[in-house]
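**Polypeptide and fold**
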Amino acid sequence: MRTLLDATAVPADRGGVGRYVDELVPRLVDAGVSLVIAAQERDAELYGALVPGAEIVAVPSALERRAVRMAWEQTGLPNLVRSVRPDVVHSPHYTMPLAASSLGVPVVVTLHDATFFTTPELHLRSKAVFFRNAIRVAVRRAAALVVPSRATRDEVLREAGGDPARFHVAYHGVDAGRFHPVSEADRERVRSTLGIGSAAYVGFLGTLEPRKNVPALVRGWVEACAGSAEPPALVLAGGKGWDAGIDGAVAAVPSHLEVVRPGYLPLDDLPGFLAGAQVLAYPSLGEGFGLPVLEAMACGATVLTTRELSLPEVGGDAVAYCGTDDASIAGSLRRLLADAPERERLARAAAERAATFTWEAAAQAHVEAYEAARRR
């Protein structure tokens, strides 16, 4: 099956959509898909190395600007469809070329989450409006829709309607070659890089945006550490988002407690960071999947997260759960920090459960979506 995958929406920092596409494409080729990848000039060499059997079409660097990329999707991408003559077009980030169907080529669209409907206040207003409209268009016009969880499918159906038969759940996988339990030496190296030496820490990994509920985590951690003779540091790793409440929450932290904000961590440091945390806390208000939770589990971390949307589908009974408010986070965190045997039990269970999520299975679910789109 000849598939044109539009990877031009992948950001330079390899955020969520970048990680998804980067992991998926080599497995699609392994599954027998004949891929043509439209990619930003900066990514052409990367995809050429990831999938030597694929045809890479580099688009002009001007597409780095979102407005230019969106215009190209509606004009340049249909022209590319005419040239490539694929069996299917895959748009992996909400939006789609509206003219593709008029060319007789079915379009498959990936919808990563539905929080633009359910909790729009957690997004920039312009972003929430844009993606709500994009999801509605995809639901009406795409031949098949890929979603990363049953929760996302159910939320989209409830908020935007659509035909349930067109939805295909493709859970994300985890790269076991990168994310796995690591040695104490690797953990110590990352602690040294973070500047916290041998100190224990509670970790968080993700973009610092309102949906991640980081101010509540900061306040909950402060409460959990009250009266502790050796309180763990709090390490907030991830790109700077637009959560205006984080700075105020951090500023209110008592002086004897330490908050570390290292920004993005290199991929090679993530296993040591995740595995080295006493607890990896991810008190999100809602996720389409929750890849940081799965990757932490694969590293044998003790994970504390919420039961919002898809997160129980990922964590199952191998993680600890809390509510989204300060007090619930504090109580659950305090109990975990005081119970080493429970942390060890959860860490073992997490690594076992994470091994059941593979990118090969995700690729097979995508192939099934492509085949269904062709039949329609």
About this structure: The first strand starts at residue 2 and ends at 6. Residues 66-84 form the longest helix (19 residues). The chain has two domains: 2-173+358-375, 184-354.
